[in-house]
Write a structure and sequence with these properties.
Rossmann fold, Quinone Oxidoreductase, Chain A, domain 1, 2 domains, 15 strands
Length: 344
């Protein structure tokens, strides 16, 4: 099959062997796949990720960087075949998505972060039948591909355990931050304060449901908010993934605040822990979404409760992947670029 794959710290486009579904798995023709910041992390930090994983028992420790890796975990596609032991409850031609997990019985891998399970940057994927979720025919595949990042935002939002008495602050309004805001709205939580340096990201935060959008250079997002009857944030979602941000949050947070770390920073960071101790802060590190998060996220997109159309700023084929990855992290870069492998 044709694929954009990672090898020798570079993206290549070429032919690799077609994946073959194992027991309980289906073969899918990729229709759409979003490019995530974690794909950029693998491009630029693959050796660090694999070495750290080996030291700490993570699943990525089994990745062989001398072999191709086809990224892409925000995917959907059309069922075109079945492996042994499948129920075939969904017909050939059904549009589906799933989380990127592979069952332990099949090797316990992550689709798109693996040598053995190519992701959505390739023409075909192998997915676990039990994890498949059907996408209605009226839903644009590009929009449906946003279910995975939305599900991650929902999981982070839930991790903070917001109540009716809480004010949430979302620091960083890239894909994760916007998904957290959308997740908070799905939970009925509010009010929500969004903080970002980029005006376009602040505007998108308001579109996703934030009540206030603040430029931290001009206003203090952690202080008392006059437009919220002088209430102050009590849950802070760190969605920037940049060195120094957690320490800034600790210094700015009010007493007894909860801090949810949603951003991934692949650099060593430092925090002044006495500041957190004096304020009795609780810090929680977020993780991947769970099955019910994915289900809720997909249905919210399908029924229009969450409009993710503004996230998609570009659509490319495989030859556009390397350039799109190079653009990641810039304020002017679209929240998501979507790949269709049929567009070479």
């Amino acid at each position: 099959m044709k694929a954009a794959y990672l090898l020798d710290s570079k993206m290549h486009v070429g032919d690799i062997p077609d994946p073959v579904p194992g027991r309980g798995q289906v073969l899918v023709r990729t229709c759409a796949c979003g490019i995530c910041a974690s794909d950029s992390h693998w491009l630029h930090n693959a050796r660090q990720i694999v070495d750290y994983s080996k030291e700490n028992g993570w699943i990525y420790g089994a990745v062989d960087l001398a072999r191709p890796i086809v990224p892409g975990h925000e995917f959907n596609g059309e069922i075109i075949g079945y492996g042994p032991g499948t129920s075939r409850r969904m017909k050939v031609g059904t549009m589906v998505t799933s989380g990127p997990h592979v069952k332990a019985a099949s090797g316990g891998d992550i689709v798109g972060h693996s040598n053995n399970y190519p992701g959505g940057f390739g023409e075909y994927m192998v997915l676990e039948e039990d994890f498949l979720k059907e996408i209605p025919t009226f839903v644009d595949p590009d929009l449906a591909a946003m279910a995975e990042p939305l599900s991650v935002g929902l999981r982070h939002a839930r991790t903070g355990e917001p109540t009716k008495d809480d004010v949430s602050i979302v620091v960083g309004c890239g894909a994760i931050g916007l998904a957290v805001i959308a997740g908070l709205k799905l939970l009925g939580a509010g009010p929500i304060i969004a903080a970002d340096y980029a005006a376009t990201r602040r505007e998108m935060a308001l579109t996703m449901g934030a009540d206030i959008a603040i430029d931290p250079r001009d206003e203090n997002p952690y202080g008392l908010q006059p437009t919220l009857n002088s209430r102050q944030g009590s849950i802070i979602y760190e969605c920037a993934g940049k060195p120094g941000v957690i320490d800034q949050i600790i210094r700015g947070a009010g007493p007894d605040s909860r801090i949810v770390i949603a951003g991934f920073c692949w650099e060593n960071d430092q925090v002044f822990t006495p500041g957190a101790s004096v304020k009795r802060l609780t810090m929680i590190f977020g993780s991947r979404s769970k099955e019910d998060d994915m289900e809720i996220a997909l249905r919210a997109i399908c029924d229009g409760r969450v409009d993710v159309s503004t996230w998609i700023g570009a659509r490319v084929g495989l030859n556009g992947v390397a350039d799109a990855l190079d653009q990641m992290g810039r304020p002017e870069t679209p929240i998501r670029t979507v790949i269709n492998p049929a567009r070479i």
